[in-house]
Q: What sequence folds into this?
């Protein structure tokens, strides 16, 4: 089968489309014929070698974690899906014609393979960070970096919980945030005053998705570092706030929650751009701009 791999760390140009053996589903796993794969920031950081100390790779290595497609092999002990089912989920080396998934959910009929391919990491991350920040019904929650993959999911999960959501993104994403159910505002000078105007009674929790260096401001707004959780600003602990990481976590609960909301028409993750497998490097470069609405997706013919 065709798969995207790299044999050395480096820029987008190190990604190659090569022929490799098709993988098989182990116990508790499924294999899919991939229709599309979601692009996450972690993937270009790993490719670049930025995480080689914490997540050393054996090269050559495959790329990707999120995908949607058709089940074509079911491992021992798996009883909830059969060959031929359409699913989305999370696994390994998903920029390929076939990939093994370790967590999955049925793809809602109303959601395209391209859109569902981007769901897994945003859903798991968003649900985790809202749980860690203690967000519940009636809370006012601030989402910094609300229009990307994780931020869009965090806004929609928080709205589903009955929270009042303030979303921070650039000027071109203000209407988009409002369409998700958030009160939108822009980042940049005056942010604290703009948020105070939107939430005169105060902010109960803040989740930092963008990692834009505003942990002190988020603590000022919530009045308590315990109510601030970041997924991408590793200076947060210096201020008493937390960083949430998801390595090795099972995504099944989040995937099912997302599928439930998407089936009801209450969860969407726009496909910002699609790239064919052969242009996986360009897809990662598009993600790395940090200004993508929803998700960049790699499609498999
Ligand atoms: N720790 C974890 O478990 C975990 C899991 C997943 C992802 N991550 C990391 O979390 C980060 C976000 O992931 P993502 O996939 O959601 O990213 P993304 O899709 O690239 O979204 C980035 C978002 O940040 C906004 N943004 C850009 N500059 C900003 C600024 N100065 N202030 C506030 N918002 C700003 C963008 O809005 P505009 O386009 O309007 O500027 C966009 O909404 C990445 O670094 C990723 O690697 C961590």
A:
């Amino acid at each position: 089968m065709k798969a995207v791999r790299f044999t050395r760390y480096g820029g987008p140009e190190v990604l190659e489309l090569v022929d490799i053996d098709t993988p098989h589903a182990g116990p508790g796993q499924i294999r899919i014929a991939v229709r599309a794969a979601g692009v996450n920031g972690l993937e270009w950081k790993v490719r670049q070698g930025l995480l080689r100390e914490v997540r050393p790779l054996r090269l050559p290595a495959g790329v990707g974690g999120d995908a949607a497609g058709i089940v074509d092999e079911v491992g021992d002990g798996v009883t909830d899906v059969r060959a031929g089912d359409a699913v989305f989920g999370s696994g390994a080396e998903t920029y390929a014609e076939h990939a093994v998934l370790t967590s999955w959910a049925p793809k809602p009929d109303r959601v395209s393979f391209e859109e569902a391919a981007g769901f897994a990491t945003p859903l798991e991350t968003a649900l985790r960070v809202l749980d860690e920040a203690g967000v519940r019904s009636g809370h006012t929650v601030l989402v910094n970096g609300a229009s990307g993959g994780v931020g869009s999911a965090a806004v929609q999960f928080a709205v589903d919980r009955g929270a009042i959501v303030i979303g921070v993104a650039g000027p071109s994403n203000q209407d988009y945030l409002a369409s998700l159910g958030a009160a939108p505002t822009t980042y940049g000078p005056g942010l604290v005053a703009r948020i105070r105007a939107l939430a005169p009674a105060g902010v109960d929790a803040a989740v930092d998705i963008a990692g834009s260096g505003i942990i002190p401001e988020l603590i000022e707004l919530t009045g308590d570092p315990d109510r601030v959780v970041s997924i991408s600003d590793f200076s947060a602990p210096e201020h008493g706030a937390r960083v949430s990481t998801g390595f090795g976590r099972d995504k099944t609960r989040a995937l099912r929650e997302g599928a439930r909301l998407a089936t009801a028409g209450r969860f969407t993750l726009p496909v910002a751009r699609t790239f064919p497998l052969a242009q996986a490097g360009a897809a990662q470069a598009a993600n790395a701009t940090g200004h993508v609405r929803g998700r960049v997706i790699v499609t498999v013919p």
Remarks:
- The chain has nine helices and 15 strands.
- Residues 123-243 form a domain with the Rossmann fold fold (CATH 3.40.50.720).
- Residues 31 and 100 are 4 Å apart (CA to CA).
